[in-house]
Specification:
Order of helices and strands: HEEEEEEEE
Number of helices: 1
Number of domains: 1
Shape: globular
Strand content: 25-35%
Structural class: alpha/beta
CATH class: Mainly Beta
Mean pLDDT: 84
Helix content: 10-25%
CATH architecture: Sandwich
CATH superfamily: Aromatic compound dioxygenase
CATH topology: Protocatechuate 3,4-Dioxygenase, subunit A
Number of strands: 8
Low-confidence stretches: 1-34
Length: 162
Protein backbone atom coordinates (compact mmCIF):
# COMPACT_ATOMS: atom_id res chain seq x y z
CA UNK A 1 0.00 0.00 0.00
CA UNK A 2 2.92 2.33 0.63
CA UNK A 3 3.92 2.12 -3.05
CA UNK A 4 0.40 3.18 -4.09
CA UNK A 5 0.56 6.31 -1.91
CA UNK A 6 4.00 7.16 -3.28
CA UNK A 7 2.59 7.00 -6.83
CA UNK A 8 -0.61 8.89 -5.94
CA UNK A 9 1.23 11.72 -4.14
CA UNK A 10 2.79 13.25 -7.31
CA UNK A 11 -0.60 13.05 -9.03
CA UNK A 12 -2.23 14.86 -6.11
CA UNK A 13 0.46 17.58 -6.25
CA UNK A 14 -0.11 18.03 -9.99
CA UNK A 15 -3.85 18.45 -9.44
CA UNK A 16 -3.27 20.98 -6.63
CA UNK A 17 -0.81 23.00 -8.73
CA UNK A 18 -3.20 22.97 -11.69
CA UNK A 19 -6.04 24.25 -9.50
CA UNK A 20 -3.88 27.02 -8.09
CA UNK A 21 -2.78 28.07 -11.60
CA UNK A 22 -6.34 28.11 -12.99
CA UNK A 23 -7.49 31.54 -14.17
CA UNK A 24 -9.54 33.53 -11.72
CA UNK A 25 -12.81 34.90 -13.12
CA UNK A 26 -12.78 38.64 -13.78
CA UNK A 27 -14.63 40.72 -11.23
CA UNK A 28 -17.98 42.19 -12.14
CA UNK A 29 -17.47 45.80 -13.22
CA UNK A 30 -19.45 48.57 -11.62
CA UNK A 31 -21.29 51.12 -13.77
CA UNK A 32 -18.42 53.56 -13.13
CA UNK A 33 -15.95 51.11 -14.67
CA UNK A 34 -18.04 49.94 -17.62
CA UNK A 35 -16.20 48.44 -20.61
CA UNK A 36 -15.92 50.04 -24.03
CA UNK A 37 -18.72 49.48 -26.53
CA UNK A 38 -18.20 48.38 -30.10
CA UNK A 39 -19.27 51.05 -32.59
CA UNK A 40 -22.42 50.39 -34.60
CA UNK A 41 -21.70 49.06 -38.07
CA UNK A 42 -22.35 51.65 -40.78
CA UNK A 43 -24.65 50.83 -43.69
CA UNK A 44 -25.55 52.48 -46.99
CA UNK A 45 -27.01 55.97 -47.02
CA UNK A 46 -29.01 55.03 -50.11
CA UNK A 47 -30.32 57.40 -52.76
CA UNK A 48 -33.35 58.64 -50.81
CA UNK A 49 -31.76 60.62 -47.96
CA UNK A 50 -33.07 64.17 -47.70
CA UNK A 51 -31.71 66.58 -45.07
CA UNK A 52 -33.88 68.59 -42.67
CA UNK A 53 -36.58 66.04 -41.90
CA UNK A 54 -39.24 67.49 -39.59
CA UNK A 55 -38.83 67.13 -35.84
CA UNK A 56 -41.37 64.41 -34.95
CA UNK A 57 -41.32 60.98 -33.36
CA UNK A 58 -44.11 59.37 -35.40
CA UNK A 59 -44.75 58.89 -39.13
CA UNK A 60 -47.26 56.05 -38.94
CA UNK A 61 -48.24 53.30 -36.54
CA UNK A 62 -47.69 49.61 -36.04
CA UNK A 63 -43.92 49.49 -35.41
CA UNK A 64 -42.02 51.17 -32.55
CA UNK A 65 -38.24 51.45 -32.70
CA UNK A 66 -36.43 52.46 -29.54
CA UNK A 67 -32.95 52.40 -28.11
CA UNK A 68 -30.09 54.30 -26.54
CA UNK A 69 -27.38 56.32 -28.28
CA UNK A 70 -24.01 55.70 -26.61
CA UNK A 71 -20.35 56.63 -27.04
CA UNK A 72 -17.60 54.05 -27.69
CA UNK A 73 -15.43 54.73 -24.63
CA UNK A 74 -17.29 53.60 -21.52
CA UNK A 75 -20.68 53.12 -23.23
CA UNK A 76 -21.90 56.40 -21.79
CA UNK A 77 -25.20 57.78 -23.13
CA UNK A 78 -25.13 60.73 -25.53
CA UNK A 79 -27.73 63.27 -24.47
CA UNK A 80 -29.37 65.22 -27.29
CA UNK A 81 -28.09 63.03 -30.14
CA UNK A 82 -29.93 63.83 -33.37
CA UNK A 83 -31.47 60.83 -35.18
CA UNK A 84 -32.87 61.16 -38.68
CA UNK A 85 -35.14 58.38 -39.91
CA UNK A 86 -36.49 57.69 -43.40
CA UNK A 87 -38.27 54.68 -44.80
CA UNK A 88 -40.46 53.69 -47.68
CA UNK A 89 -44.15 54.34 -47.21
CA UNK A 90 -46.67 51.50 -47.23
CA UNK A 91 -46.75 51.79 -51.05
CA UNK A 92 -42.98 51.13 -51.26
CA UNK A 93 -42.13 54.72 -52.23
CA UNK A 94 -40.04 57.25 -50.29
CA UNK A 95 -41.72 60.59 -49.54
CA UNK A 96 -41.61 63.45 -47.03
CA UNK A 97 -44.41 61.91 -44.97
CA UNK A 98 -42.06 59.09 -43.93
CA UNK A 99 -39.09 61.17 -42.73
CA UNK A 100 -38.50 62.31 -39.18
CA UNK A 101 -35.90 63.76 -36.83
CA UNK A 102 -35.87 62.64 -33.19
CA UNK A 103 -33.66 63.99 -30.40
CA UNK A 104 -32.38 61.59 -27.75
CA UNK A 105 -33.24 62.57 -24.18
CA UNK A 106 -30.70 63.27 -21.40
CA UNK A 107 -30.14 59.51 -20.96
CA UNK A 108 -29.53 59.01 -24.71
CA UNK A 109 -32.92 57.28 -25.11
CA UNK A 110 -34.96 57.65 -28.30
CA UNK A 111 -38.31 56.35 -29.58
CA UNK A 112 -39.60 56.39 -33.17
CA UNK A 113 -42.93 55.04 -34.43
CA UNK A 114 -43.83 54.14 -38.00
CA UNK A 115 -45.58 51.46 -39.99
CA UNK A 116 -43.71 48.20 -40.56
CA UNK A 117 -41.40 49.07 -43.47
CA UNK A 118 -42.26 47.21 -46.67
CA UNK A 119 -39.64 45.37 -48.71
CA UNK A 120 -39.17 46.79 -52.20
CA UNK A 121 -37.05 46.17 -55.31
CA UNK A 122 -35.37 43.13 -53.78
CA UNK A 123 -34.44 44.96 -50.56
CA UNK A 124 -35.55 43.56 -47.20
CA UNK A 125 -37.65 45.68 -44.84
CA UNK A 126 -35.47 48.42 -43.34
CA UNK A 127 -35.41 51.86 -41.77
CA UNK A 128 -32.54 54.22 -42.56
CA UNK A 129 -30.94 56.02 -39.59
CA UNK A 130 -28.45 58.90 -39.54
CA UNK A 131 -27.15 59.79 -36.07
CA UNK A 132 -25.12 62.88 -35.23
CA UNK A 133 -23.87 64.27 -31.93
CA UNK A 134 -21.35 66.83 -30.78
CA UNK A 135 -17.75 65.60 -30.73
CA UNK A 136 -18.73 62.30 -32.48
CA UNK A 137 -18.50 60.98 -36.02
CA UNK A 138 -21.84 60.93 -37.82
CA UNK A 139 -23.17 57.41 -38.26
CA UNK A 140 -25.34 56.25 -41.15
CA UNK A 141 -26.82 52.79 -40.72
CA UNK A 142 -30.00 50.79 -41.27
CA UNK A 143 -32.29 48.88 -38.95
CA UNK A 144 -33.69 45.58 -40.30
CA UNK A 145 -36.76 44.60 -38.26
CA UNK A 146 -37.60 40.95 -37.72
CA UNK A 147 -40.50 39.82 -39.96
CA UNK A 148 -43.92 41.04 -38.80
CA UNK A 149 -42.55 42.62 -35.62
CA UNK A 150 -44.37 45.46 -33.91
CA UNK A 151 -41.35 46.79 -32.02
CA UNK A 152 -37.60 46.65 -31.97
CA UNK A 153 -34.64 47.84 -29.96
CA UNK A 154 -31.66 49.30 -31.80
CA UNK A 155 -28.94 50.75 -29.58
CA UNK A 156 -26.51 52.92 -31.50
CA UNK A 157 -22.87 53.44 -30.55
CA UNK A 158 -20.96 56.43 -31.97
CA UNK A 159 -17.22 56.94 -32.26
CA UNK A 160 -15.75 60.17 -30.86
CA UNK A 161 -13.90 62.55 -33.17
CA UNK A 162 -10.14 62.33 -32.80
Amino acid sequence: MTDMFRLARPLWLLVAVALLAAPVPAPVLSAAASPACAPTRPDALGPFYKANAPLRAKVGSGHVLKGVVRSVPGCGPIAGARLEFWLAGPNGQYDDDHRATVLADTAGVYRFESHYPPPYAGRPSHIHVRVSAERHQTLVTQYYPPPNSTEGTFDLVLTPLR
